[in-house]
Amino acid sequence: MSGVPISDVNRRNGQQGWLDASAARAYERMKAAGMPGGCLSDAGRTNAEQAALYAAFLRGELAATAARPGESLHEVGNAIDIAEPARSWVRARSEYGFAKDTVANEPWHMVYGPDTDQHQDEEADEMAVTLEEMEELVRTVVRSESRKLWEEAAAGSTGSGRAFRTAVRSVVASAVEDARDALVEDLAAALPTGALTRAQLKTIVENRVRAVRSRREAR
Ligand SMILES: [Zn+2]
């Protein structure tokens, strides 16, 4: 599947049908407006599926024609093959953007054309997401992308992985630099007055940072 799932099973393979995003939205608008469901014979096809269909056509196994692989609008998710009673419903409502194609002897073959879709302005409302949904999307992307980058960084396997490792190191290093003075202040406040000077505390903290760093680099 390389498009957007639609709410009808594709009779050709018994799987959920799919279409290009705009065609899928138009299809769902038709469903919402009362187009009978369960009449979908075919929708989006992969290139491999088209190739198999074309081979069957060449062997004379199909009642209909089949386009060569790479030449069917089904492969880009812009065509549906639709049976009655939905077919008549769609034919009577060209304003949803689906029209009979020029394929001869295939009354079921309907093609989506955005130019004739009069309902596209409803798209903005349909696609509106809440702020929470948007945040979750961003989080998902960030989470999975960063995990992939961490793996590549650990393996040093890609240019972006290596760049990411360098970036993380410099962020950590500068965080340590920033934190050093604050740590000295915290220690000075926690110790009895005059137990150690700030200069002595600073030396201790810097030695610790250096020790941690050389241990990290030795790995
Ligand atoms: Zn077709």
Name its key features.
four-stranded antiparallel sheet; 6 strands; elongated; 2 domains; alpha+beta; binds zinc ion; single chain; Muramoyl-pentapeptide Carboxypeptidase, domain 2; 7 helices; 219 residues; two-stranded antiparallel ribbon
How would you explain this protein's 3D organization?
This protein has 219 residues and is of the alpha+beta class. It folds into 2 domains: 4-127, Muramoyl-pentapeptide Carboxypeptidase, domain 2; 131-218, no CATH class. Helices cover 52% and strands 12% of the residues. The protein has helices spanning 21-32, 47-58, 86-91, 123-127, 131-155, 159-190, 198-218, and strands at residues 4-10, 15-19, 40-42, 79-82, 98-100, 109-112. The strands form 2 sheets. Strands 3-4-6-5 form a 4-stranded antiparallel β-sheet. The chain has a two-stranded antiparallel sheet with strand order 1-2. β1 and β2 form a beta hairpin. It is elongated. Residues 42, 74, 79, 81, 109 line the site of zinc ion (ZN).
SSE diagram, text form:
Layout: E1 4-10, E2 15-19, H1 21-32, E3 40-42, H2 47-58, E4 79-82, H3 86-91, E5 98-100, E6 109-112, H4 123-127, H5 131-155, H6 159-190, H7 198-218
Antiparallel strand pairs: 1-2, 3-4, 4-6, 5-6
Helix pairs in contact: 5-6, 6-7
Zinc ion binds near residues 74, 79 and 109.
InterPro entries: Zn_M74/Hedgehog-like (IPR009045)
Protein name: M15 family metallopeptidase
